[in-house]
Design a protein that fits this description.
The protein has a single domain, classed as Flavodoxin domain (Rossmann fold, 3-Layer(aba) Sandwich). Helix content is about 35%, strand content about 15%. It has 5 helices and 7 strands. The protein is globular. It starts with 5 loop residues before the first helix and ends in a 5-residue tail after the last helix.
Length: about 180
């Protein structure tokens, strides 16, 4: 599920489909019945961060509904897009809001990601030296998206106990470039 990150969400969904060996689809948060999330595990949520750390309006409107779900026992992985050069002090801030709502629903967050290699000065999505989810910067580092998605999906698979096929999604061309 995503909010204003359609192209990246499709790349993540393609990599997840390959890794988990079953159909994975991306859904826009504006139109999804959030109640269906309680039937899935793991759950992957994505959001862009707009301007100076804001959520997209569709996500902002749906966060109370997400927080009110019963996601106890469910694992939630997060990914987000941001602009670390244009907005270096609020990079991926929206992920913190989504994480808070998922946590309020009782979900366990998985899929943290190292902050090493990024160039930002501040983020509410930062926990120590790790981001609370995968960070992607299509504005400044689009060439790193496939590599990062592939590595993150492998991390998610390991955390949920799924063996990956021998070659990663990016190596096989499953993830659109």
């Amino acid at each position: 599920m995503f909010g204003a990150t359609a192209a990246v969400a499709e790349k993540v969904a393609a990599a997840l489909t390959y890794a988990f060996d079953h159909a994975t689809t991306a859904h826009d948060v504006a139109w999804l019945d959030l109640a269906v999330l309680s039937r899935h595990d793991p759950i992957v949520l994505g959001s862009s961060t707009w301007n100076t750390g804001q959520l997209p309006s569709d996500w902002e409107a749906r966060l109370p509904e997400l927080a009110a779900l019963d996601l106890r026992g469910k694992r939630v992985a997060l990914f987000g897009t941001g602009d670390q050069r244009g907005y270096p002090d609020t990079f991926l801030d929206a992920l913190d809001d989504v994480a808070a709502a998922a946590g309020a629903a009782g979900a366990t967050l998985i899929g943290t990601w190292p902050a090493t290699g990024y160039r930002f000065t501040g983020s509410r999505a930062l926990r120590g030296d790790r981001l609370i989810g995968l960070g992607l910067d299509e504005d400044n580092e689009p060439e790193r998206t496939v590599e990062r998605v592939d590595a993150w999906v492998a991390r998610i698979a390991a955390e949920v106990g799924v063996a990956l096929p021998a070659a990663g999604a990016a190596a096989t061309g499953v993830v659109p470039r």
